[in-house]
Write a structure and sequence with these properties.
heterodimer; A: alpha/beta; 24% strand; B: alpha/beta; three-stranded antiparallel β-sheet; 8 helices; Glucosamine-6-phosphate isomerase (chain B); Glucosamine6P_isomerase_CS (chain B)
């Protein structure tokens, strides 16, 4: 566990030249850390008369508390709701990979499953603190099976249950021992739900309302019984109606217990909620907004079919739907339902090959934060607090998590101004007699390449072009060299820029296999369409990472590329994979890499 | 005495800061140290208004001073007189103060040496005048009962022993005190006037603080600004290995 003040001999780290999120504001202050906790420098100065043992320059970046994800069903191929023999290693894999999204603590979520699955899986996922091995597990979130049939969404109907017969005993029989459980989502209109809610709250488990057709009155009564959270607002509940707002009305209800703040999860991936609805919720009750990912196992993988619990889902771009029957793959574009001609691979709900039922999301947490910031136009501080402080307040952990106040756990992320994650810090356990505490103090994930040193990746030169008469999209696949594969954030769309105007490049990256798939739009020139490999190159970036890809081997193009992109072709720069330090070097990008 | 008149508060602060910087560089500090001021007594150290917090937030946290070299009078000490004597001893051990930086109050006091303080006084416990309490009330949410009534302070004599003294005066409410300090005689009712007898004093003020001075005085010292500005010419930095 983390060291107490008794770790007075431990090293003191000072992060300078940064803006930290404290008290709801971004202050130009230094962050001091010792023994896994945030330290008060004034006490250190006057009482202990010590200075920092190590200073790290953050390059003017933002230091925010680590994000907390209270609803994540899996990721990177791991499904928490699958009863495998070794659930622990799946959780550990996800815990490690989400560090790159800035998540330092999370609640693995189990969807509606048969009781055997709960009995097998729940005891295998204990509460665990984070460290260099991965984000911390705060406890399980059990979403279902005590939910409404009409609003089950992607949850399988066969395994829905009720607790009419024995109330809390029914729940215990379904889930098994509740030691590792932190949040339970249920529908309050089910019979005897109030007894169950009270019993759960008495055990310190947070009760959430979701997948329900409850009206406002039932929801308010549930809050009086102890419910404090709403699972993915707007989704899987009755829509807002002006005479009966339903669960959505809890945001502004005046019949709640005094002083109680109702929290609500929102999936800000641009699909689950229209940005206008996101804004309405945010403006109505900003202090209760909790950003969640509701990520499914397909997070970090590519398009295609994946499982979620007992269901199959289909992923296309940033959206995931319940998989339906597969029509002829060559046919869908001519479906009459979709009148808009558009290019693949943009996800179109009408052209989707499956159903229209959303099934979780594959937007990573940092993408959600950025989208939330951009959609609501709120301040950076609000967006960051929605992902860190509010989930901590929901779980009653705001003294130690979700905050950079003195004495809190030192879990934080380093972000640039556009809120891309540059590094994630979780303090490792300070072991008694640990020979070198320095290993406890390093970023557990960093953007792999320093933005000041783009890399040249040489591709085989492309096909020589000739004018075509119809616009045609071209696809190229690139396999990254071995040393660049580790650390790519996710399979989401990368931000691309091209060296010449008039062309549009979209890319998608699979972090596991190191393959980047690029799709180029053609451009029109002299009455013909040229495929864009004519371009001198493309710059791929995600967050702070940039790769320059010269696509052509003609000398003129290389010279142009060098001029446009200032790439030094012969200079390969790479960062060591996570877990291996370079001695004597700082661990923040921009420092000492070359 | 040098009287440096700048246009406004920001410029005066900047000038003073540059001057101190230059003096430190010229001094070539090695083992020598500088001392800062006294503090109000009776508050716990972590009270946001204590002098410790004030000095930390406004000064110490921005510089790389060794904490062992920062000495602040502790208002919570058991024996306050012993604390004051110990402070005087620390000054002696450090070889005396090289540059004393202070401000003045509207009643002309330096540090907390209220009107009537002896001009040869040393570090001691001092009762505060009503004016000072009113002036400090803004740091205590305007509640007069919360403002401390006693303070540990360096004495006028202690400050006179410093090799150089710099006084910062800004704002129209200090204008009368400045007038009394430099244009009238030495008087224990305006304790700052004691520095007329100090070999190296420098007063840094803004335009508003000169409102009560004679035009002749102001013009005279403004005419010397070109000489004064040489004092703040950027010197080589200490990092260049001097």
């Amino acid at each position: 566990m983390r060291g107490e003040q008794g770790a007075a001999g431990a090293r003191v780290l000072q992060f300078t030249n940064c803006r930290i999120l404290r008290g709801g504001k971004l202050l130009r202050e230094d962050l001091w850390v010792r023994g896994g906790r945030i330290l008060d420098p004034e006490k250190l100065f006057f009482e202990e008369r010590r200075v920092a043992d190590e200073r790290r320059d953050c390059g003017g970046r933002i230091l925010a508390p680590g994000f907390i994800d209270v609803q994540i069903n899996g990721g990177f191929g791991v499904d928490f709701s699958q009863a495998t023999e070794d659930v622990g290693s799946g959780v550990a894999l996800v815990a490690r990979r989400i560090l790159s999204h800035g998540v330092t603590s999370f609640c693995p979520t189990l969807v509606t499953s048969p009781p055997e699955v709960y009995h097998k899986v729940v005891p295998q996922i204990p509460v665990k603190s984070g460290g260099p091995h991965g984000a911390g597990v705060l406890g399980l979130h059990l979403e279902g099976p005590f939910i409404s049939r009409e609003k089950r969404g992607a949850h399988p109907e066969a395994h829905l249950r009720s607790f009419e017969a024995d109330a809390f005993q029914d729940l215990l029989a379904t889930y098994g021992p509740l030691d590792n459980v932190r949040i339970v989502t249920l529908a309050p209109e089910l019979g005897r739900s109030h007894e169950v809610i009270r019993a759960l709250t008495a055990r310190g488990i947070c009760v959430s309302l979701g997948h329900s057709v409850a009206d406002l009155r039932a929801a308010e009564d549930a809050v009086w019984s102890g419910a404090t959270f709403i699972t993915h607002l707007f989704n899987a509940m009755l829509p807002f109606h002006h005479r009966d707002p339903g669960i959505v009305g809890l945001l502004t209800s005046d019949r709640l217990p005094a002083g109680r703040c109702i929290f609500y999860g929102m999936i800000a991936d641009g699909t689950h909620t229209n940005p206008a609805a996101l804004r309405i919720a945010h403006r109505a009750h900003p202090q209760g907004l909790v950003l969640v990912t509701d990520a499914i196992p397909a997070l970090g993988l590519g398009n295609g079919r994946h499982t979620l619990g007992q269901q199959e889902v289909e992923v296309d771009g940033l959206t995931a739907y319940v998989a339906g029957e597969r029509p002829d793959p060559l046919g869908p574009r001519s479906q009459p339902a979709c009148q808009v001609a558009h290019d693949p691979p943009r996800a179109c709900p009408l052209c989707s090959q499956g159903t229209k039922t959303l099934s979780g999301s594959i937007a990573p947490m940092d993408v959600c934060v950025r989208h939330f910031l951009q959609a609501t136009g709120c301040s950076v501080e609000s967006a960051l607090e929605a992902a860190s402080l509010h989930p901590a307040q929901l779980l009653g952990l705001e003294k130690s998590k979700g905050t950079l106040d003195f004495g809190a756990d030192a879990d934080f992320v380093v972000l640039d101004d556009s809120l891309h994650v540059q590094a994630t810090y979780i303090s490792g356990p300070v072991l008694a007699g640990c020979g070198d505490p320095a290993w406890c103090w390093r970023a557990v994930w960093e953007a792999p390449v320093c933005p000041a040193h783009p890399i040249s990746v040489i591709l085989p030169s492309s096909v020589s072009p000739w004018p075509w008469h119809t616009p045609m999209w071209q696809t190229r696949a690139v396999r990254l060299p071995e040393q660049l594969r580790g650390g790519w954030a996710s399979g989401a769309l990368l931000a691309l820029r091209t060296a010449t105007v008039g062309s549009d490049v979209r890319g998608w990256c699979s972090p596991t296999s190191g393959v980047i798939v690029l799709t180029f739009s053609p451009f029109e020139f002299w009455g013909g369409w040229f495929p864009s490999p004519l371009l001198t190159g493309a710059v791929l970036g995600t967050g702070g990472t940039r790769l320059a890809l010269p696509l052509f081997s003609s000398l003129r193009c290389k010279a142009q590329l060098r001029k446009c992109l200032q790439v030094q072709r012969d200079r390969m720069v790479w960062a060591p994979p996570v877990g291996r330090e370079q001695p004597g070097k700082n661990h923040l990008p921009g420092q000492g890499l070359a | 005495m040098r009287l440096v008149i700048l246009d406004n508060y920001d410029l005066a602060s900047e000038w003073a800061a540059k001057y101190i910087c230059n003096r430190i560089i010229q001094f070539k500090p090695g083992q020598d140290r500088y001392f800062t001021l006294g503090l109000p007594t009776g508050l716990p150290r972590n009270h946001p208004e204590s002098y410790h917090s004030y000095m930390w937030n406004n000064f110490f946290k921005h510089i790389d001073i060794d904490p062992n070299n920062a000495h602040i009078l502790d208002g919570n000490a058991a024996d306050l007189q012993a604390e004051c004597d110990a402070f005087e001893n620390k000054i002696k051990e450090a070889g005396g103060i090289d540059l004393f930086v202070g401000g003045i109050g509207p009643d002309g006091h330096i540090a907390f040496n209220e009107p009537g303080s002896s001009l040869v006084s040393r570090t001691r416990l001092k009762t505060l005048a009503m004016d000072t309490i009113l002036a400090n009330a803004k740091y205590f949410d305007g509640d007069l009962s919360k403002v401390p009534t006693m303070a540990l302070t360096v004495g006028v004599g202690t400050v006179m022993d410093a090799r150089e003294v710099m006084i910062l005066i800004t704002g129209a409410h200090k204008a009368f005190a400045l007038y009394k300090a430099i244009e009238e005689g030495v008087n224990h009712m305006w304790t700052v006037s004691a520095f007329q007898q100090h070999p190296r004093t420098i007063f840094v003020c803004d335009e508003d603080a000169t409102l009560e001075l004679r035009v002749k005085t102001v013009k005279y010292f403004k005419g010397l600004m070109h000489v004064h500005n040489k004092l703040v010419d950027p010197l080589f930095s200490m990092k260049d290995g001097n």
